[in-house]
Amino acid sequence: MTEQETHETVFTLAASQTYWRFTNLGATTDFNHAGWEWTVVAPSGQQAYILGRSNIGGTELGGPDATWPQTLAITEAVMAHRYR
To answer: How many CA atoms lie within 13 A of 24 on its CB side?
Structure first.
């Protein structure tokens, strides 16, 4: 799996998350994929992005922004959590 495919999968998985924390960064979720714990942030009015990932070997900060269609799907997951 290429890095781009991994990131696309991470954004797809973020859109299916059912638990979000609300922080000063925006709505944030964590989940496991491919041996890493990923953190995705959905800031209000901006594109969602990967804050970073970590595993037993260390932590990597940063990642690409989601596309607007990916951000919309993630925002829908956030809203479903917030208003359930």
So the answer is: 0
Tens digit of each residue's pLDDT (9 = 90 or more) over 47-60: 999 999 999 999 99
For 28, the token pair is: 């944030």
Residue 74 and residue 28: Cα distance in Å, rounded? 10
* DSSP-assigned beta bridge partners for residue 31: 38
Residue labelled with tokens 């995705």: 40
Question: 73, 81, 8, 21: which is closest to 29 by C-alpha?
Answer: 21
Q: Write out pLDDT tens, residues 10-53.
A: 999 999 999 999 999 999 999 999 999 999 999 999 999 999 99
Q: What tokens appear for 1 in the block?
A: 């799996």
